[in-house]
């Protein structure tokens, strides 16, 4: 199934059993970790313009009903503490959880003010075996950062695409949601990266 197929399929009416329950008391918590300046020893440039991104995201997420909490230029230890505090709090009455990192990055790591942190260390705190009140709920991580030194290759979409929706590729597995009774601990994560792996994010 192509990306375009997936787009058109997403516009169809979905089986309620395949949709997330999004009518809890709260939309949920949205964390924004914004990093503009870094410890001199890391030799990382300032991220000019990041505060505008932070403010725009704060405004938009607030409009969507999230309780937004912003943190600026936290040290690695401070960032991990904030993440741990939220992961151990109750999300029973929330629809989902959202976390945004605006920073420099390298491979599978994100930079705090004074050190880099493995992304899996952060997301791991919200897996089902660690954060049970978010089991079966969307956990969305948006990471705006470089992931390497290679520039991402631009592509041009085709004018005409095949968006046939009545067939799926043979390698796509269809699951009957009503028959699934257990979930893997790492289920329901949506990881959004601004660039592909090993790619460099240039300011535009």
Automatic annotation (TrEMBL):
Residue span(s) of domain Caspase family p20 = 26-150
**Is Protein biosynthesis set as a keyword in this record?**
no
Sorted keywords for this record are: Apoptosis, Cytoplasm, Hydrolase, Protease, Thiol protease, Zymogen
**Keyword set includes Zinc-finger:** no
The record's GO molecular-function terms, alphabetically, read: cysteine-type endopeptidase activity
Give one Pfam family, short name only: Peptidase_C14
Listed under GO biological process in this entry are: animal organ development; apoptotic process; proteolysis; system development
Coiled-coil segments, which residues?
Answer: none
Localization annotation: Cytoplasm
Q: Which family does it belong to?
A: Belongs to the peptidase C14A family.
Query: This protein is called what?
Result: Caspase 6, isoform CRA_b
What is the source species?
Rattus norvegicus (Rat)
